[in-house]
Q: What sequence folds into this?
């Protein structure tokens, strides 16, 4: 698979963010989370993943994104992979990830995940990657109006899952036999947390601003996962894939720009909703008689 080209390049907290959302790019039909975090985000979770060798012209964050698209990351889905150069955004911020090993707990369902790519040597690349993760975390916490005690470790959610009690920081660093993560940051977690707080106080840039290196954003509306039964939506793209079911890999037909209705408000596998042609058809059974088909969420615009 060729090196990926981001849909757009922005900056957040002075960190270059290359957006390549799996909700838009899923050629291998890897399983995707479907639970919305809209209005529910309670913090940022920090992880470490190992630095890997990369080919010329790319970075570890791009390669981890590519590995996810290929299915090589198994069921790990995170919002950001961050290295010493930049960060690659894989999921919309209002979509939950799979990263905390706590199932439907608050780690997966209510926090934004940053995978900081390091090798634990403490070399220049490690320090730059960690600094980028700190800046990004600070900007996200400010963006959501959250304080420093909403900064979590992967291990925090494992300890919560296992029924352990304590303060946020106690749970962040308390030993867990399953996994201690972020492995390379945990030994100096207090210093890392202080760095994040410092960037928050300095007024880290919260807004994601288009870069001069913009690679051609389509101007499409933000992807949403909270469509309600009966909601009127518009298909705004020139040609929209219509699927026969939630798992179909190839479309059964195509739809063109027009107005439809959300049949039952249930986000199905692969981020698809059932749609119908008339408001009075919503929720009516048998579904096969009234449902037009399944459409991916990135095709909808609210009317």
A:
């Amino acid at each position: 698979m060729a090196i990926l080209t981001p849909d757009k390049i922005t900056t957040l907290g002075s960190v270059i963010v290359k957006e390549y959302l799996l909700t838009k790019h899923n050629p291998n039909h890897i399983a995707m989370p479907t639970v919305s975090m809209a209005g529910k985000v309670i913090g940022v979770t920090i992880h470490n993943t190992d630095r890997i060798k990369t080919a010329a012209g790319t970075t570890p964050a791009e390669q981890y994104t590519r590995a996810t698209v290929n299915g090589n990351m198994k069921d790990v889905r995170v919002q950001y992979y961050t290295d010493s150069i930049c960060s690659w955004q894989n999921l919309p911020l209002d979509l939950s990830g799979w990263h905390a090993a706590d199932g439907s707990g608050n780690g997966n369902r209510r926090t934004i995940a940053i995978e900081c790519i390091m090798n634990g040597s403490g070399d220049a690349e490690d320090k730059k990657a960690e600094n980028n993760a700190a800046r990004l975390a600070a900007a996200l916490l400010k963006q959501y109006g959250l304080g420093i005690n909403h900064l979590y470790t992967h291990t925090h959610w494992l300890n919560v899952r296992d029924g352990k009690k304590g303060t946020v920081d106690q749970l962040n660093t308390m030993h867990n036999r399953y996994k201690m993560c972020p492995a390379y940051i945990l030994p100096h977690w207090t210093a890392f947390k202080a760095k994040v707080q410092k960037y928050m106080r300095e007024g880290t840039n919260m807004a994601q601003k288009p870069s001069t290196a913009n690679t051609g954003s389509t101007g499409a509306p933000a992807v949403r996962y909270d469509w309600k039964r009966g909601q009127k939506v518009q298909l705004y793209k020139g040609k929209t894939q219509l699927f026969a079911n939630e798992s179909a890999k190839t479309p059964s037909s195509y739809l063109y720009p027009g107005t439809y209705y959300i049949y039952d408000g249930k986000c199905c596998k692969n981020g698809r909703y059932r749609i119908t042609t008339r408001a009075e058809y919503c929720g009516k059974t048998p579904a096969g008689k009234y449902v037009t088909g399944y459409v991916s969420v990135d095709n909808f615009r609210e009317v």
Observations:
- Residues 204-220 have pLDDT under 50 and may be disordered.
- The first helix runs from residue 60 to 70.
